[in-house]
Write the structure tokens for this entry.
Amino acid sequence: MKGKKSKYVFPAVGILIIIAIVLLTKFNSGHVPGQSPENTGPSPVEAEKTGSSPESGATSKLKQGYDFLVSKGANYGDSQPSDWPFSITSTYWKRILYSALWSPTDGTATESDVSSGKTFYSNSRTKKTGTATISPSIDFSSQQYVEYDDYDASDYTGEESTWIKTSSASGANVYQDTRTGLYWSSSIGSYTNDFSSPSTGYCDFFSSTPRSSYGTSGTDPDCGNAINACAVLSLSSKNGQPADTDWYLPSQKELKQAYRDGIYNQAGSSFTTMGVFWSSTENSNDSANAWDENLGYGRAYSYGDKTLSNAVRCVRRD
């Protein structure tokens, strides 16, 4: 009987020892029974996602995406998913390729808007260089010492703008204030400025955007002679360029800014003259009067009788 028990006990013990060894090995390796063992390295599919070529030798998605974008050259951003010659199912890969599609499609800057020497990218992703001349910073530190006004031509001029004579044709001198960009005509004569005619309507000049888009017929009685004189002015603002027809009568603030920017000192007293110039700005308390401005010493008048003749100069902007 004893011999029969030994026949079964030893094999059973051996089996138990084997099971114990297996369990101990699994425990030490971090494997929990009933769960799949960890993958310690990327499979061919995972290698594909990381950019490595799969074991099959096929080109990885990373390489396909790179080759595709390179083949587009400078226009690599104009493709859409429908153009992709390969299937992309991974969310991450889609994000990578979509990032290459971004383009500044709503940009409006041109070379003339960007400071000279500064680079930027146009809508077509083309690198461009700005050409604009930006006015230097203004030194206001000495303004407290200003003793005279422009009329005496002895005052501090450090706060003034740079004025450029852009047209020197005889009788048609034009200066540009580089700070505001406005082109100023010389005086084109004296006119009345009665632009309120309730019996006939309202002057279209005041509802046009921009003001320079006001019609060029110059016959609207609601606008008065001064506004109409600028509306029909045909004058080139730059030497060698065709005549411009988008001149208009400046507002009181545009005239005042011209004074502040030093039109008397910078463009010269002969260009400025000491006359009083009409603006297109009406006195809000008295429609019979409009603002006018002396560009020599900066005095503005709000009670200029519109029926009186004052000097007129016109402005335009690019």
